Amino acid sequence: MNKKVLVVDDESSIVSAIAYALRREGYEVETANDGEEALVKVASFHPQVMILDVMMPKLDGYGVCRRLEDREDIGIILLTVKNDIVDKIVGLEMGADDYMTKPFEIRELLARVKALMRRVEKSSPSPDDQKNQAIVNGTLRIHIAHRTVTVKEEKLDLTPKEFDLLTILMSNPERVYTRDDLLDRVWGMEYAGGTRTVDIHIQRLRKKIGDTDQQKLQTVYGIGYKASAPEPGGLV
């Protein structure tokens, strides 16, 4: 399968440099110069990874993330000229998987693309998956082979990271994971972001699964998170 990357930035020199470096590494590359064009390219090109500038005309990077909130198979690396932690948190809350601050080293960007591509590819079900296996916790059901989650039989739109994070916690109910442990398991050793990333994704998951009364995803203060014990017959 071709490894596809979409590069989106309104600075043509940056787009050209990134695209050239990626093609030398064997990636299939498409480019866009604004957010609206990016959405069109996503629909036609179907990239596994998108390198997305934040400040762009017509539709900025945050807007693109919002439009793609129901994506299940695109990893997003945000590019920003700002080094403010608030901007990075906003990007992660919008569903981005990683971020880099301009100016950046092309070699580091390539390393992050490679790491993210590897995680996205792992998210695709393999022939060895247990096709009928599912994790059940109350009205929440994780269909492992198809990488889908339903609550009250309604499908949720989760990003790859959200799915992986939820599955790890729900697969081992009552086990307490530190933020560092979850960061390593879901984002990998190459990820340079802090543990705040985990908190943001837990918040997003709670909102999406309606986790208010049952508290399926529980905070263990000073340590990390755990999933509540499932009802009998939780792994089928």
TrEMBL record:
Every Response regulatory domain range? 4-117
Q: What is the lineage of its organism?
A: Bacteria, Bacillati, Bacillota, Bacilli, Bacillales
Entries under CDD domains matching the protein:
trans_reg_C (cd00383)
Sorted UniProt keywords: DNA-binding, Phosphoprotein, Transcription, Transcription regulation, Two-component regulatory system
| A Gene Ontology molecular function term of the record | DNA binding
Instruction: Using the record's annotations, give every residue carrying the modification 4-aspartylphosphate.
Output: D53
Query: What Pfam families has UniProt attached to this entry?
Result: Response_reg, Trans_reg_C
Known DNA-binding region: 132-229
Any keyword Transcription?
yes
User: Which named protein is this?
Assistant: DNA-binding response OmpR family regulator
Q: Which domain of life is it from?
A: Bacteria
PANTHER family in alphabetical order: ALKALINE PHOSPHATASE SYNTHESIS TRANSCRIPTIONAL REGULATORY PROTEIN PHOP, REGULATOR OF RPOS
Give the species.
Paenibacillus pabuli
Q: Which residues form the OmpR/PhoB-type domain?
A: 132-229
